[in-house]
UniProtKB/TrEMBL annotation:
This protein's name: Peptide MFS transporter
Subcellular location(s) per record: Cell membrane; Membrane
Source taxon at top rank: Bacteria
Protein's organism: Pedobacter frigoris
PROSITE patterns: PTR2_2
Alphabetic keyword roster: Cell membrane, Membrane, Peptide transport, Protein transport, Transmembrane, Transmembrane helix, Transport
Residue stretches spanning the membrane: 21-47, 59-79, 88-105, 111-129, 150-170, 176-195, 244-262, 268-284, 296-314, 349-369, 381-402, 414-436, 448-472, 492-510
GO molecular function, one term: peptide transmembrane transporter activity
Membrane topology classification: Multi-pass membrane protein
Amino acid sequence: MPENLSLGEIQNFKGKYPKQLWYLFFSEMWERFCFYGMRGMLTYFMVTQLFMKDVDANLQYGATQAFVYAFTFIGGLFADKILGFRKSLFWGGILMIAGSAILAYDPHQFFFLGISFTVVGTGFFKPNISTMVGKLYKSDDARRDAGFSVFYAGINIGALLGGYACITIGKQYSWHLAFGLAAIVMTISLITFLFTQKSMGPIGLPPGQNEDVNDIAVSGIDDKVQTEPAVITVKSANRKWYDYAVYAGSLAIIPVIMIMVAKTQYTDWFMSVIGPVTLLYLIYEMSKYGWAERKKLLAALVFILFSIVFWGIYEQSGGSLALFAARNLDNQALGGLLTLDPNGVNNSANSLFVIIFAFIFSIIWIAMAKKKIEPNTVIKFGLAFIFLAGAFFVFYSTRFFANAEGIASLDVFAIAYLVMTFGELCLSPIGLSIMTKLSPVKLQGVMMGMWFLASAYGQYVAGLLGAGMAEAGEHDTPVQKLISYTEGYKQLAIYSLIAGVILIVISPIVRKLMQEVK
């Protein structure tokens, strides 16, 4: 393919998909293999190999994931204003490979160092490749949705394969090999991008000095589900030495992340300060606007606060549910037809169900919209909570399908993930798009930051909730752990159900606050 393609030539492609989409598809697929493979190993590895208490492992999982989301926002800003998407993606990939390689060399001695490299690397890589996909299309191109559907399929295929393969290899063969596999596939991802980036024309190049950059952001409440793109305009600040400052700064922050994740008390202090300060700043900014703008910002705050609750419950999958799967599930799926690692199922079932049902849900929403009966955004968020409650009631019900040793049915556990996925697919329109639509232009960057901060808080809360469930039964038998964890899941189901009902009840009020925004 010619190296000097213009943006117009790329966007005027023939057929259903641009060739560049497939290059980005494979880069993202292997990166998500690495990310979800690593994520799925964290809590289990900390408990079984580093001999941490369940409480500490849950807290450190929550802290790690919180910083991943915080750095996703920071990495996106640096890419927009200084590095450009290509340099940011490359630098993030290098850091992720370094982190995985450190863990492969000695995961016991250098665990937190390797994880810290991965946290910062993900922040630079993740937000930028999806933005590049958006730039392959004109804003009014009807083929955009089909392209993003393919791209999100790549995310879920990577998450499915990595989530199952890495934890299974680690448990059955070698943790060095498991972390090494993450490094290998991340290297494949980066090599794929390096050898195909010349076909991207001007897409992803560093912005010019003081140039207006229209960032087409596509990050939602979950990266596995397609969301409506959001356009955010920022002013670039690109100078050559700024690049080196970003590289040096991102390396310098790694020891700080390492300390804060290893000693979660520091994370507690950080999270207890940054949230209230950000909220006070937003209230100050709201005072500069009229009542119409304030009402929209209040509606945005409703979405932000409820997203923290949703994430806190949903993200038990990487924390308490990982330990529950390891100790309290059998390995027989489909009534004994398949023998599967329960932790692999915990890590990958959601991605499998998203692949199967995402298209079906999109058809349902389109059909309902044609009949003018599609639920509004607030109702969909409420429905997501209702499904989430249903999922955790099913997790609770595993206690009724357990044997005398406290080992429960893997099939029932997988059904819970099916119900959870339905809730996730109700959230597809809830993303940065709704934040930007509800925000004045000058506050769009602030609201984008608050959305990612809310995601970070959700991960942090997930760690706290998981730690709370583990606290009472550190030395319990499998039967006692089954009872204590499932009782905790029942409580989370009740919280989720209450949140969903509240959202549905207040939906008319929130819709009035949103005014003309759909």
